[in-house]
Write a structure and sequence with these properties.
Elements: H1 24-28, H2 31-54
């Protein structure tokens, strides 16, 4: 029979602690999400200003 190495089931030291849940503030700190929200917000602002000032 072939010798298979046993799996290491211990947690690595780089894993985040289990008692710290990652919530909404972690997601909002991501740069791609903030860029996307800034683009959408600026488009909404331009549309609102167009409606208020030019129509």
């Amino acid at each position: 029979m072939l010798d298979t190495p046993e799996l290491d089931t211990t947690q690595s030291e780089t894993a985040p602690p289990q008692d710290e849940p990652r919530g909404c503030l972690f997601a909002l700190s991501q740069p791609p999400l903030m860029i996307f929200l800034a683009v959408i917000g600026s488009l909404l602002l331009m549309a609102a200003l167009h409606d208020l000032l030019l129509l």
